[in-house]
Amino acid sequence: MVKSIGKKINTAVFISGRGSNLKSLIKNSKSKNSPIKIKLVISNKKDAVGLKYAKDSKINFSIKNFKKNSISENYILGQLLKEKIEIICLAGFMKILSKNFIKKFNKPILNIHPSLLPKYKGLNTHTRVIKNKEKFTGSTVHLVTSKLDSGKIILQKKLKILKNDTAKTLEKKILKIEHKLYSKAIVKFLANL
Asked: Distance between terminal CA atoms of the chain?
């Protein structure tokens, strides 16, 4: 990855749902100090609400349902190449990218996860955190590897769990944290390249 002064890095964001992290990444990417330019949004669901943010910001987007995983992944690799994408940010993307995809892309892929990794990898993190009576939870931005939620941690933010918190209230609170954390983590990660 070549980083020239003043030039923003072409970025793709992968989503599956409401796209609130995408919305905040788009907003932050428009600031003069942001190191990224979002050029492509990929969704595995055609009804993902987040696609609206891509349309509103005139960002190219692509929808692939990943039913035939390798065909979808090869198509997307072609799109990433075409748009000269240097980094991928997974933002609520509910598909696991294959080892082959990660190897072929061969550039950084970041993910934001709603727990303090290495604890609570995978799904239903808030429910599991409450069930286990944890005192703290939070969010983690990490590098994606072929092992689920196991890549190098870039940045984490901790949140105290209150007595009356539920999985729903934690989800809301952590989403707020994520909207700031993701952009900070991207800046930190790219500054250290």
From this structure: 8
Cα–Cα distance for residue pair 181/114, rounded to 1 Å: 11
- What would be the CATH architecture of the domain defined by 8-107? 3-Layer(aba) Sandwich (3.40)
For tokens 């005139």, name the residue.
58
Q: Which parts of 83-152 fold into alpha helices (H)?
A: 99-105, 125-131
Per-residue pLDDT of the chain (193 residues; tens, 9 = 90+): 545 556 899 999 999 999 999 999 999 999 999 999 999 999 999 999 999 999 999 999 999 988 888 999 999 999 999 999 999 999 999 999 999 999 999 999 999 999 999 999 999 999 999 999 999 999 999 999 999 999 999 999 999 999 999 999 999 999 999 999 999 999 999 998 8
**pTM of the entire predicted model:** 0.95
Domain spanning 112-193, CATH class: alpha beta
Catalytic residue among 113, 126, 142, 179: 113
CA distance 75 to 174: 33
Dihedral in degrees, nearest 10, Cα atoms 75, 80, 83, 86 = 180
Q: Is 113 a catalytic residue?
A: yes
